[in-house]
Amino acid sequence: MGTLKHIGWRLVNILPVLLIVSVLTFLIGRLTPGDPIQGQYARTFSPEQIEGIRDAYGLNLPLWQQYVKWIGDLFVAGGGRSIVQEAPVFDILWPNFLNTLVLTAAGVLICAVVGIAIGTVAGAHHRRFADRFSMLFVQVGSNLSVYWFGLILIWIFALQLKWLPVSGMQSRGGGGFGDLLAHLILPGISAALISMLVLARFVRIGIVQEKQSDYYKTFASQGAGGLSLLGKHVGRNILPPVVNIIGLEIGTLITGVLFVESVFNWPGIGTQLLNAVNGKDYPLIQGGVVLIALCYLVVNLVTDVAVDALNPRLRRR
Amino acid sequence: MTLQVSDLVVEFGTGDDAVRVVDGISFSVAAGETFALVGESGSGKSITAASVLGLLPDSARVASGSIRLGGSELVGLSARELRRFRGSQVGMVFQNPLASLDPSFEVGNQLREIIGLHEPDLPRVSREALAVEWLGRVGIKDAPRVLGSYPHELSGGMRQRVMIAIASLSQPALLIADEPTTALDAVIQKQILDLLRNVIRTTGSSLFIITHDFGVVSYVADRVAVMRDGRLVEQGDREQVLAAPQDAYTRELIEAVPEIGTRFALERAGLPRRLGVRAPDWAVGSGSPVDSADRADQVGGAAPAVPVAGAASGVPRGEAASARPGEPLVVVERARKEFVVGGIGTGESRRSFLAVDDVSLEIRRGEVFGLIGESGSGKSTFARLAGGLLPLTSGTVTFDGQPLSALKGRGLRALRPRFQYVFQDATSSLNPRVSVGEQIVRPLVRFGKAPSVRAGRARAAEVLDLVQLPTGTFDRFPHELSGGQGQRIGIARALALEPDLLILDEPTSALDVSTQAAILNLLLDLREQLDLSYLFIGHNLAVIEFVCDRIGVLEAGRLVDVFDAHELFAPGRSPVTRALLGAILPIERSAVGAVDGELEGLTETTEPQPVAG
């Protein structure tokens, strides 16, 4: 009961955050120079005609009225109509947003699995060769840029070795699930790189610290072996911080994915948003940002609830 | 011999940078014997214990020497081979019971796992039964509840009982206990020591106990070794080491321990009340006064024995009497402090608990008022209330006639320099990035006590001299100081403002015995030189009795007893006071031997549950 109540409270707390996000998104769009109608039709129509179109899109209304109208559109009109593409915003964004989610999910999976693996090897061999070697790898990797790393991956694995496809999400004519997986590997790794290495550091230091803790000594003093100690006790005790870091890193990952999409020509929301910004397509920018913000909030909520659930001190009241 | 350690050398680091922390020590522990290794922090005693189990930190290694357990050489064994000995032949109890169980698993799960390490073929049901049986043996009555609890749901004493069960359930030949009671309250300490004695009696194990406390040595040990800077300076039978120590360092350590009644013995001998000074008339006495008085008390309130009887029956009180009932400096009336957790917005229901419950007392000018209580009794909260660091829920605090609890802003600020705090952990109460000298100067300038920074520096040099630190200390940073030096800086900082009252919150609890003695002596010196009053918070009755003129006893936020130091043994003391008194472990200097026979504390009945979950 306590947990449900707690989750309920967290959901309520999301509302003011969403309100602030919506206001900021709205204002940032409007306060930067440029105008969608001018940009698109300045050569085609006379100034009077353009004013007419602006009226039709409600762009001449006072700012607060535009904001209220947009909030209403979010709920009933699919986020308003895109000025450039002339269709409801969410209809345009949705398929690509799903593609972005697929790539993000692949990134998170790679980040978690590889990050924890590197961290565990390093932590378990603290100050020995395996530790120093993997930390060198982490050190170098953390300084790579996502763009450059993605291009190098393409060059090695797609162009030279020809093991994996160069870009896109599906081979021409579609190729089923295996084909999708093959297309996911390279962009997934590029997107996950930085977060994966951050996670590896945390896992490593977590293991080193837990190994110095008193309970570790208790079990070691009773003859418990290295692996069962590491797997059961250390693993369980570093789980909450690991979940926390993964939750935080998903945020970073989503941002990274938007860049990776352009390198790998992935049909995600990133390319669309880029075009929308260039064309000053307010409703589309706003709709996209709100979608991404919502993702952040949901991930945060899930992370917090999971971390609380893992803490025995919070389990019973 | 159960354990034979010969010429053991342990080093941190390798090659030319190697630091020897254990430097060629030899000792042995016979079957069924209790052997105590005594030393101050940094002496290498815990490293010695860890090397027996092969559980040294990564950077340390046994450089040479031999450790033989029941005839088998342990030095040079691989980790895998060592693992066979751990648990089955050596069990270990660690200092901090709060951290020595895995916080993420229920106690039952951990006990079953450890039983499984020793008897892999035992089915789950039998493991459970064995766990219940052992919890019974360590005095835990409601085993099912404890097995289903997470460690944080148990008190420190309970957790230490569980640890003892874990360490002994395989009935090892040797039980190592590294400061097993240092983190516990006095009353619980005695129960745990009794339990250890009882457990080794039933399992037939030898006990190798590491401690810094000669009271513990006196209570449990058969033989003693004293360690300093990695070497053994002395070893021998308990009676011999305690009654006639051969080495000067041993003597110094024993004499640094405050004992009940010492101050009155010193007074009668016309000696100053300082630790390390020994009154001739009782050095040869049979047992310390607390013990005889304590026993007399238990027998049925018979008149306490000599040293105390003098004070209680109206013989002139000397120094204690000179703490004339001066005018009250601090008057606390009906102070209450309620803490609230949870409430709207947190998703938790609102709960509250009373940390200080209707406490009234006064601290007179020139006196040392001691406040004692177990952990969680509210003594530190009271210290904060008395100095206006925390707002009262209700009640009043008056300082030198001014209503402290009603003052705000400028008025409170004007009063602040007149009462200053000294905290338990001196180093962490200092800013790590500012030199200690500057930290003395800043409040001086801020409170307008020094017209310029230059004048402030001059004053800082004065107070550094007052606390017996060299002038060069001014430019040091907190991490460069030892515990004792840090505490001296804490005192210097407080004194610089020329306060009337020092609020000392466990100022010596984290210090070694000899450092504690030096700090207590310093505080007694300063009080005479500067005409100060102290509010001295502590949990060690022997320290409080030695330093304080009047003593208040707190229990669960309530003041249950207030009395003059010389009336400690008078009839009518509260049960809490008597329990604190009974928990003191006196240093037995006679050959009579420690309290033998009936052991107390085999059940957890008197043990409080932790406050709030």
From TrEMBL, chain A:
The organism's place on the tree of life at top rank: Bacteria
Biological-process GO terms, alphabetical: transmembrane transport
Residues forming coiled coils: none
Domain ABC transmembrane type-1 residue range list: 97-303
UniProt topology in membrane: Multi-pass membrane protein
GO cellular component, one term: plasma membrane
Cross-referenced InterPro entries: BPD_transp_1_N, MetI-like, MetI-like_sf
Keyword check for Transmembrane helix: yes
TM spans (from-to): 7-28, 101-124, 136-160, 180-203, 242-264, 284-307
CDD domains xrefs: TM_PBP2
Keyword Transmembrane on entry: yes
Keywords associated with the record: Cell membrane, Membrane, Transmembrane, Transmembrane helix, Transport
Protein localization: Cell membrane
PANTHER family per UniProt: DIPEPTIDE TRANSPORT SYSTEM PERMEASE PROTEIN DPPB-RELATED (PTHR43163)
Record family assignment: Belongs to the binding-protein-dependent transport system permease family.
Descriptive protein name: ABC transporter permease
Native organism: Herbiconiux oxytropis
TrEMBL record, chain B:
Subcellular locations according to the entry: Cell membrane
GO molecular function annotation: ATP binding; ATP hydrolysis activity
Residue stretches in coiled coil: none
Pfam families: ABC_tran (PF00005)
GO cellular component, one term: plasma membrane
InterPro entries recorded: AAA+_ATPase, ABC_Ni/Peptide_Import, ABC_transporter-like_ATP-bd, ABC_transporter-like_CS, P-loop_NTPase
Membrane topology summary: Peripheral membrane protein
Major subcellular site: membrane
Residue ranges constituting the ABC transporter domain according to the UniProt record: 3-254, 335-581
Keywords attached to this entry: ATP-binding, Cell inner membrane, Cell membrane, Membrane, Nucleotide-binding, Translocase, Transport
Taxonomic superkingdom: Bacteria
PANTHER family: ATPASE AAA-TYPE CORE DOMAIN-CONTAINING PROTEIN, OLIGOPEPTIDE TRANSPORT ATP-BINDING PROTEIN APPD
Similarity annotation: Belongs to the ABC transporter superfamily.
Designated name of the protein: ABC transporter ATP-binding protein
Taxonomic path: Bacteria, Bacillati, Actinomycetota, Actinomycetes, Micrococcales
